[in-house]
Amino acid sequence: SNSVMKAFSVLLLTLFVAAAFSAPHTLRFLHGSPDAPALDIYLNGVRAIKGLSWTSVSEQVLVDASETLKVQLYKAEGYQMLAEWMVAPDNYMLTCPQIFAIYGLYDDLMWKLVDQHCTPHGQGAVVNAVHLYNGLGEVDISIDEDGKCTGVRGIEEHLLWENVPYDLTTDMKKITNPDKGPFEVKIRMSRMPKPMVDTLMLTAEHGHTYTIFGLGEFVTDPYSVCNSGGTKAESSCPGYDIREGVWIAVPSVYTSTC
User: pTM for this structure?
Assistant: First the structure.
């Protein structure tokens, strides 16, 4: 059928591109800047991703991990360059696909590579987290007890990580029983009385990795001129609308480079 032929053609193209690289590696790009517009992403001068919007994750892009990669970010409308980075080969983890997370504010964008396991990857599912919500403070992250297999009854949730600071990528934890999902993931402030920040529902499958991203920015002093109820104290105000912070789970995908 046409669909089978199309899939076969895509496979052949992927194999051809991978063969052309001495160290083929898979990246996906995440737009995590709370005030940046939609992005066009250029790799070594060629537009690879068009119109990536806030909290969106791109399709897979094959790069040559043996060479330095030039990454350029442009406004999707207006062709204004916002950032340019040179990514050296020693940043890659060749044994697993990675997410290239773009975060920070529009006028000071940053990047981070986040590891995920190849898919499929054994029994159970795996979860890790990346705290990119600037100004929020340290957080604790927990999951429904059904996601773990501790043998202890009567415990409603299991703590995955505590005191997670900004800009940290956690280690990976196993969800033993993904079939019992969906699971409620809770994010709380680490400081007492541990107020709830956000919750998200996680539907997991065996062999997949799920990366929880916290994305956002606290920049406005409640007493500054930027706040209509403030005292008009001197303060710098953000030049753009800053979207409300969010916590999302990004699943791993099948890749030809594992």
Answer: 0.83
